[in-house]
Amino acid sequence: MTLEEILRQTRTVAVVGASANPARPSHGVYRYLKTHTDYDVYPVNPTISDLDGDPVYATLADLPVVPDLVDVFRRVEELPAVLADVLALPSLPATLWLQQGLFHEQVGRDAHAAGLHVVMDRCLKVDHAQWVGR
């Protein structure tokens, strides 16, 4: 599946590691997705409860839906735990997206083996703007 197909078929996005700090890339991507896309966007971060007036969920398991795409802003060493959380959901998201600067070969293999589309080391905001947001 191409990036454009992934982006066009996605309807719900969980942003794991969403930050309330406007200087953080995860905040900018979250705001872009909320204001410039038709996606239903769910911020996930156990350290905050509100982001721009929207509820923030502590874990993926707390979301009211299983998202189509899980966009990850976590440290590389935390990626196996994020994948474990994804795989523990009642049904699988279509795509695991590791933001720009994140690459983990084993997580990618395991996610792909579980049936997920895997995107690594790419910015969802940039790719959406390029492929869909025109």
TrEMBL record:
Span of domain CoA-binding: 6-102
InterPro entries (alphabetical): CoA-bd, NAD(P)-bd_dom_sf
Coiled coil: none
Domain of life per record: Bacteria
Gene3D superfamilies: NAD(P)-binding Rossmann-like Domain
Ranges that cross the membrane: none
Protein's name according to its UniProt entry: Putative CoA-binding protein
Organism listed in the record: Mycolicibacterium tokaiense
Source species taxonomy: Bacteria, Bacillati, Actinomycetota, Actinomycetes, Mycobacteriales
Gene name of the encoded protein: yccU
